[in-house]
Specification:
binds NADP nicotinamide-adenine-dinucleotide phosphate; 301 residues; TIM Barrel; 10 helices
Length: 301
């Protein structure tokens, strides 16, 4: 079994006893095309999940709106009863339209139903971490999160949720959230080419809150960059490995959930945690996003 050192080290979610491998796994790619319906190869999806935990990864990110319901049921089929220490993080706040669109689902009823859907489909009595997802498809939008977060805080006090996080939020929304309940993680879009959250990440790092970038590899259109390709060629690794290693080196509170349905890609992604990027390559990669803050970079080279 791979240990935590080879998985980028470990991160303890603040105020919890949950220590997770910094290299985690995002389960969204396990549903069918457009995150809808079952995958072509269910046995392959199950094999990927089992390889994830066999490698020592103890952090899986999911949602019941992947499929919908499909991804969580595959996780349950592959991994239930869950190993001690496995942290399954889910998210609520969205639903899928019949046309496969992604819609808000932030009413009290929708949030309560979503938590129960996650509990049932994952086969759990309590959810480890639930992210409240607000905002647009890619980025936060202004507005109070008090009403939906209060609903989740109530479910937490009833014991259905252990810890809460936020997804697609601004620093102001985090501050509002923290006035309502403890927040252990923020999940926003960020990668080597999309760096709007640079300052946010540094602020969260100083307070020990996990930052979990979604689309770490660019999402539905994986990253394409000459600088990434050149770095990968010089290190004799794959470009996506460089992109993940860059994130791990960016800040110690960054925890990764790259998504894949491929065993080959899974191995590549896991192995990227052992990659150490030299400073000159990091500098060239920093230029891709264009908003680098080298003074705040924390390197563990
Ligand atoms: N909070 C939110 O709003 C939100 C939004 C989106 C996603 N998420 C979460 O974030 C996780 C990660 O996001 P994501 O899966 O959408 O995007 P991602 O991790 O940035 O990229 C996934 C894409 O990259 C490909 N890929 C993965 N590893 C690769 C490799 N080594 N080489 C080449 N291609 C590779 C995958 O295809 P293959 O399957 O062919 O490998 C897939 O097309 C999701 O699983 C989900 O849990 C959250």
């Amino acid at each position: 079994m791979t240990n935590h050192i080879e998985l980028g080290g470990a991160f303890t979610l603040p105020g919890t006893s949950m220590t997770i491998s910094r290299m985690g796994y995002g389960a969204m790619q396990l549903a069918g095309p457009q995150v809808w319906g079952p995958p072509r190869d269910v046995d392959g999806a199950i094999a990927v999940l089992r390889a994830v935990v066999d490698a020592g990864v103890n952090h899986i990110d999911t949602s019941d709106f992947y499929g919908p319901h499909i991804t969580n049921r595959i996780i349950r089929r592959a991994l239930h009863p869950y190993r001690d220490g496995l942290v399954v993080v889910t998210k609520v706040g969205a639903r899928r339209g019949e046309d496969k669109s992604w819609l808000h689902a932030l009413s009290r009823r929708e949030l309560i139903d979503a938590v129960h859907d996650n509990l049932r489909n994952l086969g759990l009595d309590a959810l480890d971490v639930v992210n409240l997802r607000v905002g647009g498809m890619m980025a936060p939008s202004d507005g109070s999160i008090e009403e939906p977060l209060t609903v989740l805080a109530e479910l937490k006090s009833k014991g259905l949720i252990r810890h809460l996080g936020l997804s697609n939020v601004s620093p102001a929304q985090l501050a509002e959230g923290e006035s309502i309940t403890g927040i252990v993680c923020v999940q926003n879009m960020y990668n080597v080419a999309q760096r709007s959250d640079d300052h946010f990440i540094d602020g969260l790092a100083s307070r020990g809150i996990a930052y979990v970038p979604f689309f770490p590899l660019g999402g539905f259109t994986p990253l394409q960059s000459d600088a990434l390709d050149a770095a990968a060629a010089s290190l004799q690794v794959a470009p996506m490995q460089v992109a993940l290693a860059w994130l791990l080196q960016r800040s110690p509170n960054i925890v990764l959930i790259p998504g894949t349905s491929s065993m080959v890609h899974l191995r590549e992604n896991l192995n990227s945690a052992a990659l150490r990027l030299p400073a000159e390559i990091v500098a060239r990669l920093d230029a891709i996003g264009g908003t680098s803050h080298p003074e705040s970079r924390i390197s563990h080279l």
